[in-house]
Amino acid sequence: MLELADMVFILGYRCPVKLYWKKAEDNLTRESIRQLNTDQDVLSLVDNMPRNHYLNVYVVEESIKYGPDLVQNDLNDKPEVGLGSGQDDLNDQPEVGLGLGQDDLNDEPEIDSNESDSVFVESDNDVGEEETCTENVANEVDKEYCGIGLSDLGIGFRVGSDSESQNSESLNSVHESNSDGQKFPEFNSFADMIKPRFEIGLVFAGKKILKEAISQYGRINKYNVKFKKNDKRRLVTACKPGCPWILRASPKNPSDPLDTSWQIKTYVPEHICVRDLKNKHVTSKWIATEYFHKFLVDFNYPPTYLVKDVYKDHSDVVSLTKCQRARDYALEKIMGSQKQQYVKIYDYLSELRQANRGTTTICYLNECLFQRMYVCMQSCKDGFKAGCRPIISLDGCHLKGYYGGHILATVGIDADDWIYPIAYACVESECGQSWAWFLDILKDDLDIVNSYHISFMSDRQKGLVDAIAELFPHSEHRTCVRHLYTNFKSEDFNKGKHLKDLFWKAARSTIVSDFKDTLEEIKSVSSKSYDWLVKTNPEQWCKAFFTSATKSDMLLNNLCECFNKFILEARDKPILTMMETIRTKIMQRIAKKQSQAEKFVGPLCPKIQKKLEIMIELSNRCWPINAGGQQYQVECGYGNQHVVNMQALTCTCRRWELTGIPCNHAVSVMILTEVRPESHVHECYTKTTQERIYSNFINPIRGPNQWTPQEGLLRY
């Protein structure tokens, strides 16, 4: 209330006054007017604020005094603000504030003519001077109270005339401008942009808003209006030749460089032309903005669907290429510019290291230009060392982004035979140099000093075989049998299902003698196929030659194939969006797997338990015989006989040694001796190991706007 009293004082009222207000939707009647007495009344006034944030406050003086005596008043004295109560006060007080007309206050007291002569100074210019004074004082109110009081709430304080009060309901979206003594309607870029309406004198905050309003007018009304003249001094827009519709606008105050507002000077609203379904104002940027929410939900929202949606929602015919450009524009807004993300690589890597201590992040530059980036989270290192088997799957895949490149990845295997991502890198190409650079860093991260007890599985990519042989000279390097068979059947002489079955039988052989017998069968079918297989190294693709240290008889590079599918949605994104998507998916996976491990029933992981149950079922066909001590002879039919050593935990079929899971021969012995097979499964398959692997979580990181800026070393 004190702030309103100060405003009234600045407006020049020196007599005790009463303040009144009404809701914007109410007509100006005695019943609709409410008196402002307390701060609670002011809050009610603010709560009923219209969309244009302008409120009408009516001032009623208890007595009127104009003329020379007013000048003699002490302007420094605080005026007394009288706050009456009741509607009857309106009938007893004459209106001095602008807002209550003569028709509204029928009981206004009459003033004696003699008294009128002594109080008022006759002048032909009294009315004009009073209006000018009121407008100037109103400007002073805006300046003095800018940023405080009601202005803090976004409220404009305005004293209006009778006509203005009567039309207050129409000012929800168009305001009035009286800064230069004239009143012009103003365009509200928020409320009026939905369906623009033009008139002569309409003021816009800037030329850009004016042009956008004209474009929106063309889209809504299906007219291809064109900007005939467009410069700093004028904007002329016309419709088709022969159509009278025209709009001319220019700067409102050309002499004031600080005033950016534009005003319509000429406007002819009539159209005699035919509406167009193909509207040039329906641009790709507008489509991207209009359907931005759909791209937020689905990055793969197809342009063909977008064409149909634009026609369905707006009855506009657009081309497929325009919708493709709209998709590219929207995705760039969502994921960031392809080039700009390279500038923030060091900021991103620094944020990773700060949130996850011990994480290895390396950015390799070639003459200050980005070439490679490597990431290995500390939790992934700890998880691999905590219980994953010492076999690492290696593979690379193409990137689908603007700049291309490859993703190199290393994947381990957890206690339940699921993939466990270890490290990944973005490189320029899949070649010997990039693989050697990647594996050299991985060697240090995993503390691989002795390569005798580690195995690698790959598709024998270019340069990878040489890189492994150089960095891990004593390691086992397996080849994916599926890719080997693809090369095998590419030869004309290796066709047919019979050769295919023999090839896979040879790969699955766990005994060297079985492998050789299978090769002889292949030789009897096709000598050329036999010669082709003999040239390969069977230690890389046959189980009979695999080491038992890894506890894995894996023949396929499915681990990396699963990882490539796991990150498929990230491969077409910009560099940082892609890397962060991969990190987030790994973070979610570790948390999910840890939660699942806690719910495992029994000592073994579920998939391992199923494999053991298969062995238990197959053991019914075996007949174990104790040979003394811990050795047993197990017969499984004519010519199929094996030796099981329960002390050494071995079987001559080598399946128990290769996998760490008892084979059917060993299980038959355990049933004979009344020993639970679960107790002889290797430790790497237990629930405890799984929980230990996934007890290392990846910490979340902050958004790009909160990253600590690093010293820029990249150009783009």
Q: Give the structural class.
A: alpha+beta
What is the CA–CA distance across the termini?
59 Å
Q: Can you summarize the main beta sheet?
A: 7 strands, mixed
The percent range for strand residues is: 15-25%
Uncertain residue segments: 64-179
How many DSSP helices? 27
Return Rg in Å.
42 Å
Query: Helix share of residues?
Result: 25-40%
Mean pLDDT: 81
SS elements, strand count: 22
Query: What's the shape?
Result: elongated
Output the strand order for the largest sheet: 12-13-16-15-14-17-18
Give an overview in words:
This protein is of the alpha+beta class. It is 38% helix and 16% strand. The protein has a seven-stranded mixed sheet, sandwiched between helices. A five-stranded antiparallel sheet has the order 7-11-10-9-8. Strand 12 (360-366) and strand 13 form a beta hairpin. The longest helix has 24 residues, at 575-598. It is elongated and about 120 Å long. The two termini are 59 Å apart. 32% of the residues are buried. Residues 64-179 have low confidence and may be disordered.
Key attributes of the depicted protein:
27 helices, five-stranded antiparallel sheet, seven-stranded mixed sheet, 716 residues, alpha+beta
Short summary:
The protein is 38% helix and 16% strand. It has 716 residues and is of the alpha+beta class.
Give a topology summary.
Layout: H1 2-10, E1 17-21, E2 34-36, H2 39-47, E3 54-61, H3 68-71, H4 88-92, H5 113-119, H6 126-144, E4 156-158, H7 162-166, E5 175-177, E6 184-186, E7 203-204, H8 207-221, E8 226-230, E9 235-238, E10 246-251, E11 262-268, H9 284-290, H10 292-297, H11 303-314, H12 320-335, H13 340-343, H14 345-355, E12 360-366, E13 369-376, H15 378-387, E14 391-398, E15 406-413, E16 419-427, H16 432-445, E17 455-458, H17 464-471, E18 476-479, H18 481-489, H19 497-508, H20 512-525, H21 527-534, H22 558-566, H23 575-598, H24 606-618, E19 623-628, E20 631-635, E21 641-645, E22 650-651, H25 655-659, H26 664-672, H27 687-693
Parallel strand pairs: 3-4, 14-17, 17-18
Antiparallel strand pairs: 1-2, 1-3, 5-6, 7-11, 8-9, 9-10, 10-11, 12-13, 13-16, 14-15, 15-16, 19-20, 20-21, 21-22
